[in-house]
Amino acid sequence: MSYKMQTDKLQLERDTVEEVKLSQPEEEIIARYEKLYTGAVNDVLREMCILNQALPPQIVPLRDEMVVAGFAFTIRSAADPTLGGELELRVKMLDELRPNMICVWNANGHDVASHWGGVMTRASMHRGVRGAIIDGGIRDTRDILEQGFPIWYRYRTSNGALSRCKITAYQKPIAIEGVIVKPGDLILADIDGALVIPRKLVEEVLERAEAIERNEGEIKEWVDAGLPARQIHERGGYF
């Protein structure tokens, strides 16, 4: 009997980024998701027994009315007092951004520096990036607000990133408090936080979430009409 730890299956699951082709244009999928809300989509994931896709509730929108959907461009960084190679890596990373992406940044618990600011916002918008989810800090807040860029973040600070942290990788799987985000996963974010939909489930989840939202509209009509709770429940409604 071999006592060697068997990790091949786990490595395949965690390290692999599947090339999943969607049957509809990205723009159409994004537009439909942005008409939904995270609660309905999260309920669909729960039906599928996928229960750990909501990013931490401490990651909040800069403005409550912000809503965005797009495909994840993942970034990792860590605390680092050195500067060597950081600007060159940032330039390379920015050149790989594409339309319909959302930058998802894992700062690995570093809570001293800003990881995103006004210039990064401007550069990303010029490349068609739809928004950013920063598990870390932002600055140049007024500039970001004036640009109307949808962004979710953990904290604000005037501290810049250089000499405080460095990007360690991008377009690799990341984990934010146990939620795994892979490049190309769909991100939906609104006032209730940010949600990760695995790319292979994007279209299936979308269709079911649209059906749930239609159903909830009917349930609300029953409530407004004064139907008893039991009758609403018997009709398939819920609260």
Describe what this molecule looks like in 3D:
By secondary structure, this protein is of the alpha/beta class. It has one domain (22-202): Glucose Oxidase, domain 1, CATH 3.50.30. It is built from eight helices and eleven strands. It has helices spanning 8-15, 26-33, 38-47, 86-94, 118-126, 141-147, 202-224, 229-234, and strands at residues 60-61, 68-79, 101-106, 114-116, 131-138, 151-156, 165-170, 174-176, 179-181, 186-190, 193-197. The strands form two sheets. Strands 1, 2, 3, 4, 5, 6, 7, 10 and 11 form a nine-stranded mixed sheet that branches. The chain has a two-stranded antiparallel sheet with strand order 8-9. Strand 10 and strand 11 (193-197) form a beta hairpin. Helix 3 packs across helix 7 (202-224). The radius of gyration is 20 Å and the shape is globular. The protein starts with 7 loop residues before the first helix and ends in a 5-residue tail after the last helix. The mean pLDDT is 94.
